[in-house]
UniProtKB/TrEMBL annotation:
Residues 1-33 form the HAMP domain. GO terms for molecular function: kinase activity. This is histidine kinase. It comes from the Bacteria.
Amino acid sequence: LSRRVPEPPGEDEIAQLARTANETLDRLERAVARQRQFASDASHELRTPIAGLRANLEDASMHPDDTDLERTITSALRDTDRLESIVTDLLLLARIGTGGSTAQEPIDLAELADAELRRRGSDLAVHTRLASGVVVRGVRMQLVRLLGNLLDNAERYAGGKVEIEVAGLDGHARLTITDDGAGIPVEDRERVFERFTRLDTARSRSAGGTGLGLAIAREIAQAHGGSLRIEDHPRGARFALSLPLA
Ligand code: ADP
């Protein structure tokens, strides 16, 4: 891939064509490098629970009468859960935006948020300001997942106190989720959307995080023609989702 078209001097059509070809090659090369990095990160993430699982199984097979067998099994099941979450998230990430059988429908954001909060029960102390009639076109399951990932994080990294707001604004639907935690430093606000980025690895893992939640959430927002970013807020973290109105 690293071969380049020789760029003749001047500004004629040939020179421009050569430059465009090289820029395209550069972009492709960067994309391939990102994919390679992703594959390597994913393998690394899968390796940890696999190693745990192996250790537990070896332990159990060497000391089958051990009274700790129950603990060994519990730990092996935890590693299995972890493997399952990572693989599920990886598959989801690969599918978003590829079309397929993902039917779009009109979705009222206030209703969606309300339904999701009800479904989740009362782990979160939620304050809502949901304007009605803010309707977008989207894949319901994906938007539920996006919202769910942000709520999971509010539970994991904050006190669980959350404010959710839905509003229509300049032809866009805007949904914000604000929590009461430590927030996210300005210099990390883009990085946290990258796959497997964690600011606090131990906490994220022990809370069941795969490090893919925000990457998935942003991918879903973009597949819907919108955006997801972190906004300044005096306290805690504020995630703002913007989607085109239906
Ligand atoms: P994870 O599975 O680790 O939660 P995410 O992609 O959802 O992965 O989040 C990436 C990282 O961003 C987290 O590990 C955490 O360090 C940070 N983060 C996400 N949401 C919040 C939040 N509401 N408050 C503070 N930090 C957060």
